[in-house]
Amino acid sequence: MTEKIYQPGDAYEYPLLIKKLLATPIIYEPDQEIVYRDKVRHTYRTFYERINRLASGLQTLGVRHGDTICIFDYDSHRYLESYFAIPMMGAVMHTMNWRLSPDQILYTMNHAEDDIVMINAEFLPLLESIWDKLTTVKKVILMTDDDTKPETKLPIDIEYEEMLQDASPLYDFPDFNENTRATIFYTTGTTGLPKGVFFSHRQLVLHTICTAMMLGCYDSIGRFRSDDVYMPLTPMFHAHAWGIPYLATLLAVKQVYPGKYEPPVLLKLIIGERVTFSHCVPTIIHMLVTSPAVQQVDLSRWKVIIGGAALPKGLAKAAMELGIEIYSGFGMSETCPVMTIANLKSHMREWDSDHKVDTLIRTGLPIPLVELKLEDPKGGILPHDGESTGELLMRSPWLTQGYYKDPEKTKDLWRDGWLHGGDVAYINGDGYVQLTDRLKDVIKTGGEWISSLDLENLSSQHEAVSEAAAIGVPDEKWGERPLIIAVLKPEFKDKVSKDDLRQFLMKFADDGKIPKYGVPERFEFVESIPKTSVGKINKIELRNLFLK
Asked: Known catalytic residue: 444?
């Protein structure tokens, strides 16, 4: 890698590099706080120095431009430092989903050709179980919260804080091509091998700026600005924590990192640090709003974006009853991820609260520089009339250019210059997208489609239902029929029947919200609904359980 040497008269060729995001916060709010649980509290000034020390320490360990560094950690100040230092020195950050199976983790590390592993002590047994089968890893950096070094069979090269302490506080982060790969992580499908998606500096910078515009410039109940206090509740290994740590840093907001997700700790941080802005999958907000402790605290300052799965109306209303400002967003691993946000338009401000909720739980409006269209099975373009349903196709400057080292699957992802994400949706006249299902999850009965997401959303509105999932089950006459799997709230377990739920859904059919053929005949009550490694309903496992 050779930096350009400028001659007199040469204009600076400004590359969109992640390091450029750091200039503003260091000028505007160098004394703003970054917090990790009850263990670490320091300023952006210290944060910037630690980024320099991390890069210096990695360079001493032999990390060079293009090397790949794999991270196993909970949401922490260390992770935030890695978000910047690793790509800023020209290396690639591989965020590891430690919830994958050991075989999947082994595959992704070898596939990404990881050179260095930075690992929280809690995950050492996991790495030990696959160590002998790793093919490219050269060094291991241990991360601990209390400076203790647990016994391990792994060859630990250095502890994270010791490395930073011994490293130089100054590192000359170079300029290089903005299209240089900055990050890689792997999709979390429940069948087949995980697929690697990767993103460049240019893509991450543009994603940060456009997300900032949508969340900060447009009028919104969940506006995110420099006076907010941010705490992610989406794991930092998952799609860059939706890219919001980059945005939070650009805005120089106070940032709070919770480590392991434990409801009492999360609530203590939300209240004690006065958190105002978070994002998570529905599973996390469900865990919090059903916690007995939540009734004792004031959450009226808290704004939360829900993504990763549909936000059921019942769950949204339960959160709003606690004072939480809640609304939806949409993205995929392949899209960096943010594509849409469910902002209200100005003429919707005077609507009653129930009417507003119907819009706030939609998939949302495209953020700046996002283009969307709908395609029918024959490749025809569908109108945005709120009724025509087809596959959602996407364009933006930050979509992954393909699956890493997998040209065949890339051909299925990118066709005719549009990314095919596999979601079925419609777009109404106001421009709001509404996902109705995954292509693989839509229920096909008698030649018609039934949205599993619609059935889940409506079922969630029954006062007795804590969670609900819908899948299609084989039927000799109709091909498939819907099945609702529901978790009842404890106080309703002996008071509500399956027929009660059927009659509840039939009322929506009578009102025209769903077709009458969409009301299931079959309901199952369960203690819990299985989830994927990122908290989504695991419909493949549900099919395995109920199609036997």
From this structure: yes
The Cα 347–Cα 328 span in angstroms is 19
* CATH number, domain 40-199, options 3.40.50.12780, 3.40.50.2300, 1.10.1040.10, 3.30.565.10: 3.40.50.12780
- 171: closest CA among 276, 51, 86? 51
Catalytic annotation present for 20: no
Q: What burial class does residue 147 get, using C-beta atoms within 10 Å of its C-beta: 0-12 exposed, 13-18 middle, 19+ buried?
A: exposed
Query: What six digits make up the tokens of 93?
Result: 């950050």
Is 139 known to be catalytic? no
Q: Decide the pairing of beta strands 443-445 and 448-450.
A: antiparallel
- Is the domain covering 443-546 a CATH 3.30.300.30 domain? yes
187 among known catalytic residues: yes
Per-residue pLDDT tens over the stretch 29-48: 999 999 999 999 999 999 99
- When pLDDT is averaged across residues 300-325 and rounded to a whole number, the result is 93
Indicate if the pLDDT at residue 340 is higher than 70.
yes
> Which member of 131, 414, 449, 478 is catalytic?
449
Is residue 451 predicted with pLDDT exceeding 60? yes
Catalytic one among 68, 95, 108, 187? 187
